[in-house]
């Protein structure tokens, strides 16, 4: 068979294949957000300052961003399913090692191993599903993956809070192990052997330069948030990132087989969809950063109740995304992406008018609305991305798509905190770097400004998508 979609044996197991892929999609994205809520406990238990414990989160995101393109290209060259299987094993082993309380250095090394495995699964999951599912069902399948990405990205604080209420912090990692083993065994049984192999040589220079850009750029961002962006060490990291980025672009334009063929961005459908995915993940992480402050600090909710309220977002998206994907298979994805972006923008307007006396059900309505909008947007948008490239480039397309998501998470967190505390500082007349318990109105004013910025980001994505739809 020259295509998985024509193999009756593979088609018989296609939904089980989707289950195996979704398990690791969920766990790898969950581990980018679940650790945040455990940092105070980890800091106390490991006897380290809070700023050092934050590197447990940072190193995971940095390593993933650095390696996504490489593993996407390796998937195209030597088999996406092979790379996915190796990644699932490394992720599970890394999760097991993270659960051991053996000091910060050991934990960071284990998190790096876990991140390598996550990058391998993230960069190949969409490509595998695009190859396995026939065109008529592809939107629904990609929508299901998109819903698990959202669930993993947003559900971390809620799930982490429930685990920490009853168990030591190591269990936020150890819970991956039994799920990982089940997914590995299921994958060994039902995942087919790769048939689309380009066997192209890998652009080692481009891979190294791209990894250097990601490491130095985000090390500079995270370090700058700790000690200030004017420090020489931070400026040097940004300078190295800029030089490496220019060198990377020059290399990719002249090398015979680049790690990232920049011609892929000539495809307007691909580029617009990637840009919109990036912008919406930036906006989503404004919500992810600010909403716990609003519910727990400003409104005085207990952490578990705040977690339940925030779970409205992923639960609604999990329900809506596969339905939106199925509809996009029938009517096409462009209109649905536009509708989804309008709904997300309306939710940001709602957040701008939320205050201390706003009934919680109104706030939760807007949380559900943004989940609904994301569910309508993400699945068709993923379909556009994956259907706009040739089969031989599915790995790279999946890697770029996952990279847009991870960059959106990191930049969203960084910009949201910067805008929030800058606005609070401006209102207070002095520097503010955390929630001020005696002045909740200070936080509310900063929150409104932050969501105005988030709304502007959503409107950019909405306008771009609307213009594309009108031109079509």
TrEMBL record:
Source superkingdom: Bacteria
Spans traversing the lipid bilayer: 15-35, 55-74, 86-109, 115-133, 145-165, 171-192, 204-223, 229-249, 270-294, 306-328, 335-354, 360-377, 407-429, 449-470
Membrane topology (UniProt): Multi-pass membrane protein
CDD domains: MFS_MMR_MDR_like (cd17321)
Keywords: Cell membrane, Membrane, Transmembrane, Transmembrane helix, Transport
Domain Major facilitator superfamily (MFS) profile: 17-472
Protein's recorded name: MFS transporter
Alphabetical list of PANTHER family matching this protein: MAJOR FACILITATOR SUPERFAMILY MULTIDRUG TRANSPORTER MFSC
Alphabetical list of SUPFAM superfamilies matching this protein: MFS general substrate transporter (SSF103473)
Gene3D superfamilies assigned: MFS general substrate transporter like domains (1.20.1250.20), Multidrug resistance protein D (1.20.1720.10)
Family: Belongs to the major facilitator superfamily. EmrB family.
Subcellular location field: Cell membrane
InterPro entries: EmrB-like, MFS, MFS_dom, MFS_trans_sf
């Amino acid at each position: 068979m020259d295509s998985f979609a024509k193999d009756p044996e593979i088609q018989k197991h296609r939904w089980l294949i989707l289950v195996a892929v979704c398990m690791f999609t969920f766990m790898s994205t969950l581990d980018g957000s679940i650790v945040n809520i455990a940092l105070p406990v980890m800091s106390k238990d490991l006897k380290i300052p809070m700023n050092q414990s934050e590197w447990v989160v940072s190193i995971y995101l940095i390593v993933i961003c650095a390696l996504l393109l490489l593993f996407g290209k390796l998937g195209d060259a030597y088999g996406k399913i092979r790379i996915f299987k190796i990644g699932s094993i490394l992720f599970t082993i890394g999760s097991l090692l993270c659960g051991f309380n053996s000091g910060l250095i050991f934990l960071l090394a284990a998190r790096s191993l876990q991140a390598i495995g996550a990058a391998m699964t993230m960069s190949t999951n969409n490509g595998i599903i695009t190859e396995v599912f026939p065109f008529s069902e592809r939107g629904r399948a990609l929508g299901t993956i998109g819903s698990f990405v959202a669930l993993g990205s947003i559900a971390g604080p809620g799930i982490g809070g429930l685990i920490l209420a009853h168990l030591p912090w190591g269990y936020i990692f150890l819970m991956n192990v039994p799920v990982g083993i089940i997914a590995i065994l299921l994958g060994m049984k039902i995942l087919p052997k790769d048939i689309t192999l380009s066997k192209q040589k890998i652009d080692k220079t481009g891979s190294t330069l791209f990894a250097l850009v990601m490491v130095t750029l985000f090390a500079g961002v995270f370090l700058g948030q700790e000690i200030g962006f004017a420090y020489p060490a931070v400026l040097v990291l940004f300078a190295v990132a800029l030089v490496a980025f220019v060198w990377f672009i020059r290399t990719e334009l002249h090398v015979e087989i680049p790690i990232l063929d920049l011609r892929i961005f000539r495809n307007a459908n691909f580029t617009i969809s990637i840009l919109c995915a990036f912008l919406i993940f930036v906006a989503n992480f404004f919500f992810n950063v600010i909403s716990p402050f609003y519910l727990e600090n400003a409104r005085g909710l207990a952490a578990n109740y705040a977690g339940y309220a925030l779970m409205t977002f992923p639960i609604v998206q999990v329900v809506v995304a596969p339905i939106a994907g199925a509809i996009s298979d029938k009517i096409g994805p462009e209109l649905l992406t536009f509708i989804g972006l309008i709904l997300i923008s309306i939710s940001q307007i709602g957040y701008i008018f939320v205050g201390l006396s706003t009934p919680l059900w109104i706030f939760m309505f807007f949380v559900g609305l943004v989940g609904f909008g994301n569910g309508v947007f993400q699945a068709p948008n993923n379909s556009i991305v994956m259907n706009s490239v040739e089969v031989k480039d599915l790995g790279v397309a999946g890697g770029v798509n996952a990279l847009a998501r991870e960059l959106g998470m990191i930049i969203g967190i960084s910009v949201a905190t910067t805008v929030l505390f800058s606005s609070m500082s401006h209102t207070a007349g002095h520097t503010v770097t955390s929630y001020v318990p005696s002045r909740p109105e200070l936080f509310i004013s900063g929150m409104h400004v932050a969501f105005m910025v988030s709304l502007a980001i959503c409107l950019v994505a909405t306008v771009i998508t609307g213009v594309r739809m009108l031109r079509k």
